[in-house]
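ok so heres the complex, three chains, lmk if somethin looks off
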Amino acid sequence: MTIIDIPAGWPADEAAARALQRELRGRLVLDEPGPEPGTGHVTGLDVAYDDERDLVAAAAVVLDARTLDVVEETTAVGRVSFPYVPGLLAFREIPTVLAALDSLTVDPGLLVCDGYGLAHPRRFGLASHLGVLTGLSSIGVAKNPFTFTYDQPGPDRGDFSPLLADGAEEVGRALRTQSGVKPVFVSVGHRVSLAHACAHTLLLAQRYRIPETTRHADSLCRRALKAALGGGP
DNA sequence: GCGACAG
DNA sequence: ATCTTGTCGC
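and the predicted structre for the whole thing:
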């Protein structure tokens, strides 16, 4: 099993990482609607950690956006490339996630990330970062509101309310994917509109709160991590 | 200065 | 994220 190395020139500290985010932020494209919901491919991405052994396993699972059938799955294992710092999550996951994406043989279509895109202290979260690096459309679907505020959306599936930064700027939406269940937090990553990002999320979360893409990727990266642990040391 | 803080 | 059994429910 190959273990992905941390790239040369990778940010050595928090200041360098923040500077890189501000630089890459300039390449973010926010004026495209993105792929039509329900068509083409959608790819779920997620990672699992073993801080003890300094390992991170990433999974990419491509689904048919219309049927939600699995089209292809890949994994990659790497060294943990950054400590967890709120606002710098991307630096912890990106090298290994990119390796998993690189080994796909089909078009990933829309990237669905476990975390945020525009809803970020510098408006450049994981989903935006991955979008810019790959050039692909991307969205972020997070399970927690991070530092943002929102009013409770209506009780029905599809109801939503704005996710606000500084109490005023809409950086995403609290979207109810299942009636009577806590909402998820959707934000635009790269080359997708917020309306489409929410439409994609609803199509991917017809049965559970979390999108099928993320659910598949979550279980796969956990299995990949266990496999790496069992067959490595 | 202190607390909060995606995964 | 991760540590973790049984349990309630479809």
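quick notes: Residues 46-47, 49, 84-87, 89-90, 92-93, 113-116, 119-121, 125-126, 140, 142-147, 185 of chain A lie near DNA strand B (CB under 10 Å from a C1'). thats all i got rn
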